[in-house]
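mind reviewing these tokens:
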Amino acid sequence: MCEFGSNLGMPHTRPVEGGLFELRIKSKEGFARVFCTKVERKIIMLHSYVKRSQKTPKKELKVAQTRMNEVIKNDTF
């Protein structure tokens, strides 16, 4: 975000579902993904993992959805 600004598009981010979006990060170690959501003017990082397959694992998506619901429900942002 420092290099490209806050209005990132493909291939750096993509919408996933239900208010979640995915940041795509490439490093020497491989590809990392960070699930985020936007609340008001804040971007909240919910869950990160190292991607090892073409499809997004349902387990990783479920963790991010659960955390997003907790954040919104408890106003912890």
The first strand starts at residue 13 and ends at 15. The first helix runs from residue 58 to 74.
